[in-house]
Amino acid sequence: MRRETMLNATLMLILLGFPLWAWSVDEPFLITLSTRAVIFAIAGVGLNFALGIGGLVSLGHAAFFGIGGYAMGILAYHAQTYTALAEWPVLIEGTKSMPVIWIVAIVASALVALGMGALSLRTTGVYFIMITLAFAQMFFYFTISWPTYGGEDGLSIYVRNGFPGLNTMDPIQFYAICYAWLVVVLFLVHRAAKAPFGLMLSAARQNGARVQAVGQVPYRLYLVAFTISGAITGLAGALFADLNRFVSPTMFSWQTSGEIMVFVILGGVGRIFGPVAGAALFILLEHVLGGLSEYWHVYLGAILLGVVLFARGGLFGLIAGREVAHD
Amino acid sequence: MSTVLLIEQTLNGLQFGVMLFLMAAGLTLIFGVMGLINLAHGSLYMVGAFAAAGVAAATGSFLLALIASLVAAAIAGVIVEMTVIRRLYDRDHLDQVLATFALILIFSEGTRWVFGSFPLFLDKPAWLSGTVMLPFGIEYSLYRLTIILVGLAVAAGLFWMIARTRIGIQIRAGENDREMIGALGVNISRLYTLVFALGAALAGFAGALIGAIQSVQVGMGEPVLILAFVVIVIGGIGSIKGALVGAVLVGLTDTLGRLLLPQLFGLFMDPSAATTVGASLASMAIYVLMAGVLLFKPSGLFGGA
């Protein structure tokens, strides 16, 4: 077995075993920490699809994270207050059902990603970075100044949304849902990366002119990748909102975009499981360093700087070797 | 709505735009010459504001505070350039984004560590407070008017420096062909440090000037940084003229949008709903402006290529 495959398997086993151990010794806080790690991992896997395979440096993925969060927040808020979301042209009511919320979150964030991508992908390089960042900031200010759903204070949802047959308020059962989603998303992304579409996308990153020469349009490839990427991150946002039972404009902030990118980088760009390692490491650092000092972001910054300057492959690069898989 | 209010708000928009220009000019120079995207530019703005607040509290002199902001931000810029940024010139944009994001974390939390979470206050000096009478009976804040004039003077100085001085020639040459000016014997690494320090000083200066109107606190730089990005995208990366035009456009759009949009919606909605919708849309106005420019000119109004 290749070292990377072994690392992937170890990682997934740890993420399965650790919460089960925490559950057996009755430490719900550790389960919640693991849930955060898994949800961040999903968000990172989403970004990595655009960033790692397509080479699209998006600093605006907080937009999709937030859209997913607010999809959950708005639907649950209307269900909780027994008010209709819209009465015209058709009656739309809120819901407390997770599957419905997921679908809405995925569709909404995919649509936003499509629009944002259609505009941003007209540019490349540093323009693209700045524009994605600016669009995310637009949502941030919009949610702050839109008072219907709490404005700056955000929305609290009192009871976690339901999933048929499960008690979602039980930390380990909610963890199981998130873990299952991570597996599904990893599987789909893995398949997409190996499919003709993924190969073509990867080729477009490496040499756009050649891809054009064989009759493909890089812009379209990028746009599809960006949309899928946004949809996955949106799903993570909905899960994150359900974990906290709270949504606020913070989900849209530029720090969120930066952190999602940090998950990808800490783990290793372009590796399917990279963000999983990165998110787990991030949560670990947050927990350990956060216990040492209130100002743990200084250390995080120093570590990140070290990784960027000296260990460019991230965690995966350190353990599984520099060269990206021969496949 | 009175004409006086409209003119006042136009001046406010101009003042905002001029300050954005100070930020955007540094960013666009640094990108133009070194090809570097610097997210930590907002941190240098913050450093300038904190240095000014500290010196003003110690000496009571606003002029000394302004000088301190320039010096402190320039020194911070030089240190950061020589330790970190220098290693990033040959890297791709992703590495630059991450490393400078890491710098933001270090700067922000480091400042919080030293100064605490409470905002500091930097008062405008007595000789700049109060109002002046402008023609047509408009009363306007003397301090804001001074900011506009100082900002325009700095802009003029910058244009003069780039067009007329030896260092300006080197900067322009650096934008065109980095390898060539190195080959012609210009000390390129000193030029890079100098340009970075210049950009940092401009950002720090803007931080100090704005710090006297708003509060001086951790995290004050990043919203301005992102607006400066919008400015650069609109104006075209690497173009100082584009930065000036973009900054004034963004400043005016934001300020006048907040004034006019609620009133526009008030024409056909009830007042409270109009205020809500108008304010929400006003917060998006500059991004709509950016999207509009992108549709027609993907590389900005004055961008090359």
UniProtKB/TrEMBL annotation, chain A:
Xref: Pfam families: BPD_transp_2 (PF02653)
GO MF annotation list: branched-chain amino acid transmembrane transporter activity
Subcellular location: Cell membrane
Keyword Ion transport: no
Main localization category: membrane
Upper lineage: Bacteria, Pseudomonadati, Pseudomonadota, Alphaproteobacteria, Rhodobacterales
Entry-linked CDD domains: TM_PBP1_LivM_like (cd06581)
Residue stretches spanning the membrane: 38-57, 62-80, 100-119, 126-144, 172-190, 219-240, 260-285, 297-320
Record-given protein name: Amino acid/amide ABC transporter membrane protein 2, HAAT family
Membrane-protein topology: Multi-pass membrane protein
A GO cellular component entry from the record: plasma membrane
UniProt KW keywords: Cell membrane, Membrane, Transmembrane, Transmembrane helix
From TrEMBL, chain B:
Membrane topology term: Multi-pass membrane protein
Annotated keywords: Amino-acid transport, Cell membrane, Membrane, Transmembrane, Transmembrane helix, Transport
GO terms under cellular component: plasma membrane
Localization (cell): Cell membrane
Keyword Transmembrane included in the entry's annotation: yes
TM stretches of this protein: 16-37, 44-60, 66-85, 97-122, 142-163, 191-213, 225-252, 273-296
One example GO MF annotation: transmembrane transporter activity
Family matches, as Pfam families: BPD_transp_2
GO BP of this protein: amino acid transport
UniProt similarity note: Belongs to the binding-protein-dependent transport system permease family. LivHM subfamily.
Name under which the protein is recorded: Amino acid/amide ABC transporter membrane protein 1, HAAT family (TC 3.A.1.4.-)
Species for this entry: Shimia aestuarii
